[in-house]
User: What shape does this take?
Amino acid sequence: MMRHPSLFAPKLALSHNRLSPVEKMGRNEQCWCRSGKKFKYCHLVREALEPVNAFEQEQRMFQELREGYCSLPKTDSCSSKISKAHTIQRKGGLAAISENNHVLTVKPRMKDMILTGGNPQPRRIGLKDASVFPGFCSKHDSELFKPIEGKSLDLDAQSAFLFSYRAIAYERYAKEAEGRFNIIMREDVDRGQPFWKQSAMQSLLYDVSIGIELGKSDMNRVKVSFDDILLSDSFEGFHYCAIRFDRIIPVVACCAFHPEFDLDGTRLQRLGQDTVELDAVTLTVTVFEGASIAIFGWAGPDKGPARLLSESLLSIDNDRKADALIRLLFIHSDNIFLKPSWWDALNDKQKTALNNMTRGGTTMRERSAAEYKDISLDLVEAEVLETVTE
Assistant: This one.
């Protein structure tokens, strides 16, 4: 099988595009932070301004996350209300792993980051707030996903596509909200700070913004592919691998990502380059009829990184597939939710390893091939009952 062309593409060089902070410049010159504003309206007196409140900024981020729209193409028939849609069924997968109507989320709050010195632990969240995003109008959220909202599920192309479509819509929405919040941060995060700190903060946020824009562009491209399949009323060009376990595993999730390594630790694609289009895969883990299912889905070429990733999972011993799946989710998504008593029962080594995985692929920590194939982590007992691939 041909190796993905991104493996031979040069990494994106940030050095030629980095900010060049200038402490003193003409009042009417474009500010060095590339905000598009004149220096006099931007960083001229930034040091003298009242510093921002981190918790107020967090609330602004939450406000950005509440600004929604309907993700369907050609939305002339949308209802006026944007739904607070669950990416994972509240009465299905979330309820199946909940305790006292709560699950755990790995998404940290600002307070958690501060109190733990940047090492937050999973925290409790109510079912009504877990996994929600305003990505569909109430009409289309109800109509489009009706086939996968029942008590039972066939592992067929229609079901797999609907799970994948929702995951793609969520990831595109999350990337756009992240971009909006990055702009907000750059506007005032360094207020009241000396110039050297302004330079460091703005440079970091600008570098992050480049990655965000690449991610937005790529996810928009993938979303168009899924839209074309949806509008064609055919599943041609859509591929999936669906797995049904023999019991409920204590994790549910809905995400889309670029497979970087397979579960043997073999590199599938090289991220951080902008000359070759990357392959994306969706992964949904939820519960039907007292058993967990996992569905990988992707649009485009069949024999690429997405297929290789799913095949690497299928090649793992039957009683270790659930462990590998959980590792993969912690590595690639923050839209995962945990059964509280399961997490509490893990030992310190297990918790540390999983917490580290959630920070992989960020400015804090590079992803490691070893994490994908870490068979030392015994996380859950489960076996596979059914597998469907197309």
